Amino acid sequence: MIPEFDVGCYIDYSPDTLRETTAEDVASYPGPGWNRDYRPLYDVTWDEVEGALDIERKALDRASRAYDAAGFEATLAAVVEEAYENEDDGFFCYIGGMDLGVAALVMAIVAAGGTTYNACRGRAPGSLHLQQHPYVGVVLDRDRAALTSRFVLEAGCCLYSGEEGYLAIGAPSVEHCHRLARTMIENRHLFDRLPAPTWRDGLEDLVD
């Protein structure tokens, strides 16, 4: 079984509150809920999103056969452990240290021209996750937020604003997050038409 959480499907943010993000913000781990261990991505291709989706899909299918939420968490932990034991380069490239269940969505957000400041698959029984439900903290400009909102609703998720104009995506389950990532990649051409995000200017010099 895949754990489910009491999260609605809605959009709740004001475009006027969306702040301008700079390369310095991204390089210094922006956003509320700051996590010392979180490393925001800034250069992800759609092909890499496909790689993350493939790995995550197989992991979720395997974990969904668990009897309960604790078993679901244990199965995903086993997937990660096996990747380390087998020195699975594909896993490290596409998933890295991110939570299976939200990793593909993080990758999709970045490929679409956004960035993230936190990600968690939710505090199911048997887990030590901090967030109460599947959650990805995102930073999007107005155009990307508007376009992402459309796909958030299609996937049954929510997009809402928090402190300082930053946004967060919430979901009733990691299956919904995975669905949103898939929907975004299916509509990549719409994101690719948008102007390049300004926060990428000079970022490479700050993170090297």
Tell me what the structure shows.
This protein is an alpha+beta fold and 208 residues long. The model is unreliable at 32-36 (pLDDT under 50). The longest helix has 18 residues, at 46-63. The N and C termini lie far apart (42 Å). The chain has helices spanning 23-27, 46-63, 69-85, 89-94, 103-111, 142-154, 174-186, 188-192, 203-207, and strands at 10-12, 115-120, 135-139, 158-161, 167-170. Helix 2 (46-63) crosses helix 3 (69-85) and helix 5 packs parallel to helix 7. The chain has one domain. A hairpin with a 5-residue loop joins strand 4 (158-161) and strand 5 (167-170). It has a 5-stranded mixed β-sheet with strand order 1-4-5-3-2, with helices on one face.
Number of strands: 5
Q: Strand arrangement, largest sheet?
A: 1-4-5-3-2
Uncertain segments: 32-36
What is the chain-wise order of helices and strands? EHHHHHEEHEEHHH
How much helical structure, as a percent, in the residues? 40-55%
Q: What portion of residues belong to β-strands?
A: 5-15%
Number of domains: 1
Give the structural class.
Answer: alpha+beta
Average residue pLDDT: 88
The gyration radius over C-alpha positions equals 16 Å
